[in-house]
Amino acid sequence: MKRTMTNLQLRKTIDLLSKQKKGIWKRIAEDLSRPARQRRAVNLFRINRYSQKGEVIAVPGKVLGDGDLKHGLTVAAYSFSKEAKSKIEKAGGKAISLNELAQKHPDAKGVKILG
User: Fold this and answer.
1) What is the average per-residue pLDDT within 39-56?
2) CATH architecture of the region 8-113
């Protein structure tokens, strides 16, 4: 039995990413295709620990607001909690969608997957 997704926005994101030429986008599309229980959820303290100022981070799932971000960076994810988004912006960073990231960085140079 084939599993179908009912979330149209998620399906469009997966289609857009899987059409990209670089392997990193296909990997993120595969991660997003998993069942909701298996998708990644990353807290800000983890992003802070494994990133540096000015980096571009891709999270194939949701970013949660536990912890603080001490430096500004660009974080792209399928979704953000309200608290996470405000803390990222407060630290001088940007919270964008994975679609926006794929359009801004089609070659995936400097993009780091975290989760």
Assistant:
1) 95
2) Ribosomal Protein L15; Chain: K; domain 2 (3.100)
